[in-house]
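Lab notes, practical 5.
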Amino acid sequence: MSESADEPKIPLAGLLENEIASTLALSPSFRARQIFEWIGKGAETFDEMTNLPSELRENLKKKATLRSSKISKVLTDSDGTIKLQITLCDSRAVETVLLTDRDGRKTACVSSQVGCAMKCAFCQTGKLGFARNLTAGEIVEQFLFLEKHSGKLDNIVFMGMGEPLLNLDAVRKAIAILTNSKGRALSARRITISTSGIVSGIRDLADNGPAVRLAVSLTTADASLRENLMPVSLTNPLSELRNAIEYFSQKTGKRVTLEAALLGKTNTGEESARNFIKFAKGLSVHANLIPWILRTNDNGMSSVFAKIGQRGRKRDTSHATRTRNRRRVRTTWKNVSRQNLS
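Output from the prediction step:
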């Protein structure tokens, strides 16, 4: 492995085993598998790779790096939610969040872009505008950082900054790395991509994989209101979105989650509930109702979900929930508090 003093180091977290072998011209080639395995275990330095010869480890330090980004801030909330601010190689920043449900399952909520172009009215990230797509390595590094900080993670959801279906190549590559049996070996069944409703991306995901779960941030099935709240609906109208959801379910055999951010009186009335039910009728879907309250706690973290009490302690009486339950749309509350990824 030769190098020029002016060449940047190669970040390895975004490479598969064969890419590590070819990029670093490793011989014997099984050294690439060993490096890939160590990355999946969360190794942060080459010195941790004790089954590699010391000479190779020293050469790797000169040529490559395991992470291209770094943690710049750690914030915690009283409910156990953890947010990592991660500084990228170009000094831009993204955030990844640990969500823990009432059963103790840990989910990494990762970003796919720096900023977001969707401009959803209720999302702080949309106010930042769009800067750039993340690389596969930058996505993988979020997961590895969070797992190192918080212990083994159970799930991953692409629900942080950005629209994942507008960076699908990098998202696919990151998933391929994290699910590889020689690396982190995360099950694809534990991965969810959440979209604001990119019709072409949903169909692409259905046709070409990976075989992960899909969630659609619907919020309202009133066409005019959705266009105001979520401008993505101007170019991806509800009729086409519904067809794409149906296509995804038929093609993959998977049920889709319809997410509804409950925005006070904006979308929780009887008519809103009926529109939602009409949209969902005949689809293989599950409705996930998310109370949406923006507040800032003492340490500066903004929580956009109201925390719901333990099972059975609170009964929601909104038109939205009563009507959906009467019409037998399978519905749950979001029972974790998530941080604002702005």
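Observations recorded by the TA: Residues 136-150 form the longest helix (15 residues). Residues 313 and 322 are 17 Å apart (CA to CA).
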